Amino acid sequence: MHTIVDRQELTKRDLISLTLEAPQIARKIRPGQFVVLRVNDTGERVPLTVAYRDAANGTVTIIFQVVGKSTAMLASLGVGDAIKDLCGPLGKAEHIEKIGTVVGIGGGSGIAVLHHLLTGHREAGNHIIGVVGARQKDLLILEDEMRALCDELIVTTDDGSYGVHGKVTDALAALVERHEHIDRVIAVGPLIMMRAVTEMTRIYGLPTEVSLNPIMVDGTGMCGGCRCSVGGETKFACVDGPHFDAFKVDFDELIQRNSMYGRDERLSLLTSIKAR
Amino acid sequence: MTGMDHELETLAQQGDLASFCPHCHAALNLYDENTKRIWVGLDVEVGDVACDLLVNPRLEEFERVCSSCWTGDAVATDVLCPHCHASLIEAEGLCDECESRVFTIDVSLRTRVAPLSCCTRAECHWHGVPKRTRAKILAGAPRQKKPEQDPKLRVRNFQEVSYGYDSELAVAEASRCLQCKKPTCVDGCPVGVDIPGFVGLVAAGDFAGAARRIREKNALPAICGRVCPQDDQCERECLLGNKGEPLAVGALERFAADFERETDQVTLPPRAAKTGCRVAVVGSGPAGLIMAADMAGKGHSVTIFEALHSPGGVLVYGIPEFRLPKAIVEAETGNLRHLGVKFELNSIVGKLYGLTELFDLGFDAVYVATGAGLPGFMGLPGENLCNVVSANEYLTRVNLMKAYLFPEYDTPAPLGTRVAVVGGGNVAMDCARTALRMGAREVSIVYRRTRAEMPAREEEIEHAEQEGLRFEYLTSPIAYEGDEQGWVREMRCVRMKLGEPDDSGRRRPVPLLKSDFMIDVDMVVVAVGAGPNRALFEDARGLERTERGYIRTFSDSGRTSVPKVWAGGDIVTGAATVILAMGAARKAADDMHEFLSDGAAAWS
Questions:
Q1: pTM
Q2: What confidence score (pLDDT) does residue B477 get?
Q3: Cβ contacts (< 8 Å) between A24 and chain B: which residues?
Q4: Which of A47, A135, B94, B475 has the smallest C-beta neighbourhood within 10 Å, fewest atoms?
């Protein structure tokens, strides 16, 4: 059992941050790695990338968007409640070294993961430019934390309610137009966003890395549910990733594969609402 | 005492036996007005003298009354049926006690008739089934069938297919055992269970005693009774199999273990005095569980590290509920907890702890049994289409995550109406039969060799056939084709023929030219074997591996290149069977115990 020691609602709607007691995981986990959790005995195994860790206090923080039954259940828990299972750290840690200028692009709950990754790159002495996007102002998360971490932060909103009016790709284009020297781009967010960023950086020839979030069951390399085509080879995101060279990833296949249980997810949510 | 004797005794205590002539089948029981008792009436000849013989059919007081001639040392020269006058003297059977000749009548044992012999020497009161005839009778006696759920019913539920023996069937089957002096069946058992010993106890009605006898060598009898490939091991060595069908060792093992559990008579072997040594076991599958049981029994303190949220490894994620109910695995792991074994769930060695970090945590020895859980794919075009899943994913979703109870449980499983399962092992059978139970209308097994080469247990293949699976033998997929949304719709296959034998001794399948054809599918399960689990190797410096990625061992007992680290089970051998993993763990446990007991032992 892992007790919740802190809970924050990051947006009015559905982005929640939970801090869980997990001393050994907190000691071991590195930026980019994830955990698999299970709320209760009948629950799914849910993979979530860790946003912060506090080794001294023995806690890890996960930030997630409420999208289905499992995340809704997770969101309904409060401080002092406990979740049944927490397993990690999983996945490969991000390879971090001093390379120069790193542009981190984040969307939705991906900003939380990006924050963890950029913290590592910052500590390695890199120049950090952040680009974070949201549909509208009140859906943007971690702005203050990102501002504190980045040498420069660009915020975009789809509706223009805050920051630059447009998508993260527009902001990226502007950066490149400004003749900014960029050594690496890291994109974390919805697959559609990562695909759009990749299409653009491919044209500019900017090395790009993405953090994938496919469907998985065990998260330890045993089911192959998270397999994705990377450079024509089948990789397991849980053990080979979740970070991959964006130019090699077959996004279209992954988008299709991620829709595989859409009908079941709706049924699960519907049944749980009816049961209330 | 053998089973049949025992059964006779039990029955005799309940009342008189009905007796019959083995030749004319006439009833031999007579009611004697004077003594108000029932007797078996026979004619006896001693030398030239002939007279009536009355035998008391209440066996516990087996009396014989002869008018005058047959007393003392006299040996009856003949015993005849009073109806057909046929001789009842056995040609071969001899009295177990005085080796005189015996005569035989038939008695009824509830539902069947059994031969009962009596000594022909008046003073000797031996009766029963003579050893010599027993061997002959038993070889011809049919193997008792396990009652099973009707195939039409069971393909719609996840309840266990086989109900197992009841006590009557178990005793009848156990009585077939020849009780060989040099039991070859034991040689066929990787953990050396005393098979004649426990079968004899079943025959004698001491079912809990039988289970205790098995537990001396095998801590997981209820599991092995269900999933061991007995047809390739103990039962293949059984002498009864030379002339008829071998003894159903597996079914008897299961019966004894189930009886013990259901009647709350589980007696764990005694624990030795505490040694103070701490053993870490990585992985809670069959090898890990046996290692833990053995080492705990030898007095060591054992902790099992398990990556998943439930202990049992392949027993919980892989083998379906209808073949191995999870409650049984829970009961067996519960027994280990009673032995003092600790389980650290959700703990991946290689990730949460490094392999050698375990020594820093105070462990004195480590056993690595992480298994072969990496799903194999064939690398075919279209393999990443939606609804093409690995056997591991499918089984894990349905078994471990209980997707068959979706949406009561939150994890869904892929669904299909026309499902193809690629492969011919137990895992393929499990996937195909699971798909039927999940509502598929048509399920095909696509296997590149023929039925004879299928590695699955014979019982599983038979069950699969009964349940109406289609078998596409000598067939192999070469590509999957999908619709616009990326869902699999067709499978392109080729026909094969069998060529020369390969390294494994099985004939190598060779594709036939221009034999392409399509199979309509909307779901495919790929069950073509598995590779080594990878998580451990992320933090296991110095641990040498083979070219295929399994752990290299340097002794029979599974010593690895890292001092004080042993390995066994599928992570050393590649995907094999539950019992082989257990056999390896037993050897490793003995070696580890010796190593830990001898403070100055060298590693290599």
A1: 0.83
A2: 96
A3: 352-353
A4: A135
